[in-house]
Design a protein that fits this description.
With 124 residues, this protein is mostly beta strands. The protein contains no helices and 11 strands. The chain starts with a strand and ends with a strand.
Length: 124
């Protein structure tokens, strides 16, 4: 019933930009935490960015200053604006969400809902 659907992935050259979207349907909550995770071949899944319903955001060190997470509560769409992309950003990107507030923002097991993923490929 609850669905998260990512879009906006694709291929881009180093230094380029992409904006990922995650549309959430089936639920609506006044408090929430949402996040973007990514997993590259041969690497563990890592949290990229998170946003809480009060607007608080967090980023992993490798994307600070380059990525921006936001959420349109009216449309229930989460975005990840990715600028100055690097080949090491190449990964499958997943959106995740949970109703209420959590404290471990980059722990995947804390999230209740996940999207199917969208591939981002950055070429040199």
């Amino acid at each position: 019933q609850v669905q998260l659907v990512e879009s906006g992935g694709g291929s881009v050259q180093s230094g380029g930009s992409l904006r990922l979207s995650c549309a959430v349907s089936g639920v609506s909550y006044s408090t929430y935490c949402m996040a973007w995770f990514r997993q590259a071949p041969g690497k563990e899944r890592e949290g990229v960015a998170s946003i809480v319903s009060d607007g608080t955001t967090s980023y992993t060190d490798s994307v600070k200053g380059r990525f921006t997470i936001s959420h349109d509560s009216a449309k229930n769409i989460m975005y990840l604006q990715m600028n100055s992309l690097k080949p090491e950003d190449t990964a499958m990107y997943y959106c995740a969400a949970i109703e209420g507030i959590i404290t471990e923002m980059f722990v995947g097991e804390a999230y209740s809902y996940w999207g199917q993923g969208t591939q981002v490929t950055v070429s040199s």
